[in-house]
Design brief:
The chain has helices at 4-7, 28-42, 59-66, 88-93, 117-129, 154-159, 163-182, 213-227, 229-232, 339-354, and strands spanning 17-22, 49-50, 54-58, 79-83, 95-96, 99-100, 104-110, 133-138, 187-189, 200-204, 241-250, 254-263, 265-267, 271-274, 281-284, 287-291, 303-306, 308-310, 313-318, 330-333. With 356 residues, it is an alpha+beta fold. The longest helix is centred in the middle third of the chain and has 20 residues, at 163-182. Bound molecules: guanosine-5'-diphosphate. It comes from Halobacterium hubeiense.
């Protein structure tokens, strides 16, 4: 069986792509690590899938982590795909058909530190790209006197705090809500938000203790399900479309592309069109690679070959003539279309990214 089929089974609904933004040291990397870690612990072995450049957290793992916060029968989206590289640069260069590659973003703000220059910058980018986002008010465990309960939902851990700690947290959160308002966004603590389209949900979390992570996953899943379902409806068997994360030399494969696939299917042997620094590249997929399962890492081999991959997924493409491919450039499977038309499509999209 090809591994592509075990990664996701979204029917015609693909996994929403999630990116993490925020000021340096506010905890982007730690939060991603925590999400990955809790998903590995809570989920059945292998339930969480490591992709190239991304981590897939399937719905059953979300609901496992979120416990009573989530009723999995309310969802038909397959889960969440987190882009592993946090930060503004990758977010800004990663486009899909003119918009942001990520469908949703998490803006991480250190709850003690509040808005900082890169928080403002992230807000500007999110505004410009019209990307829906939630705010993770991180490091709640650093409030003096904090009484942590590992991996607990926010309300539960909040109830375990002293009055003094609670009021200090409240104060910090309201300051943050004020700063968001100053930036033009109306927001509130997520459990008070009725309409996530007009109000940004603020979720108190700790990337250190995992507190609030169940809430964060629940809100992301709910947001995607309620407001993005129609955008997630893709022709999963149609020609694949993706964005280059990175161009990398890989021993035994030559120049390869790390790609986030956001639409359709890509197969071994497919003719693809890739945006390049000078000329648009037309080539053929020699191999589709995904990270080798952890249990098998003893061997030298780092990748597994797969026959095909479906959106949304992160994968590595090995193909001839990729030296001039560019990070941020579009990748398209030609399928039964006219190759010239696909080349034009890729060039038009590249021009659009370049002027911004
Ligand atoms: P990034 O630059 O935004 O990716 O931030 P990092 O994830 O590297 O975190 C910066 C520092 O803050 C590291 O030393 C983390 O261990 C620490 N940190 C991140 N999140 C938390 C948190 O929730 N609680 C505590 N106590 N420390 C945290």
């Amino acid at each position: 069986m090809s591994d592509a089929d075990t990664t996701e089974d979204p029917g015609e609904l693909r996994t929403p792509i999630v990116a993490v933004l925020g000021h340096v040291d506010h905890g982007k990397t730690s939060l991603l690590d925590k999400i990955r870690g809790s998903a590995v612990i809570e989920g059945e072995a292998g339930a969480i899938t490591q992709h190239i450049g991304a981590t897939a957290v399937p719905l059953d793992v979300v609901s496992e982590v979120a416990g009573s916060l989530v009723d999995p029968t309310e969802f038909d989206l397959p889960g969440l795909l987190f882009i592993d590289t946090p930060g503004h640069h990758s977010f800004s260069t990663l486009r899909s058909r003119g918009g942001a590659l990520a469908d949703i973003a998490i803006l991480v703000v250190d709850v003690n530190d509040g808005f900082q220059p890169q928080t403002e910058e992230a807000i500007r980018i999110l505004k410009d790209t019209g990307t829906p986002f939630v705010v993770a008010a991180n490091k709640i465990d650093t409030i003096p006197g904090w009484n942590p309960t590992e991996d607990a939902p926010v309300q539960q851990t909040y109830d375990n705090q002293s009055d003094r700690v609670r009021s200090q947290l409240d104060e910090a959160l309201y300051e943050l809500i004020g700063e968001l308002s100053g930036a033009g966004f109306s927001s509130d603590l997520y459990w008070r938000v009725q309409d996530f389209q007009s109000n940004i949900g603020v979720i108190p979390v700790s990337a250190e203790t995992g507190e609030g992570v169940p809430d964060l996953l629940t809100v992301l899943m709910g947001l995607a399900q309620r407001y993005m379902k129609s955008e997630m409806e893709v022709n999963i068997d149609g020609p694949g479309a993706g964005t280059v994360l990175e161009v990398k030399d890989e021993r035994g494969f030559g120049t390869t592309l790390d790609v986030i696939l956001y639409d359709g299917t890509i197969r071994q042997g497919d003719q693809i069109v890739v945006g390049g620094t000078n000329e648009t590249i037309v080539t053929e997929v020699r191999a589709l690679l995904k990270p080798r399962e952890l249990a098998e890492i003893r061997t030298e081999k780092r990748f597994d070959d797969v026959e095909s991959m479906q959106a949304a997924a992160g994968l590595k493409i090995a193909a001839p003539d990729l030296d001039e491919a560019m990070a941020g450039a579009p990748v398209r499977v030609v399928g039964d279309r006219d190759v010239e038309a696909v080349v034009e499509e890729v060039e038009a999209e590249l021009a659009e990214v370049a002027v911004e």
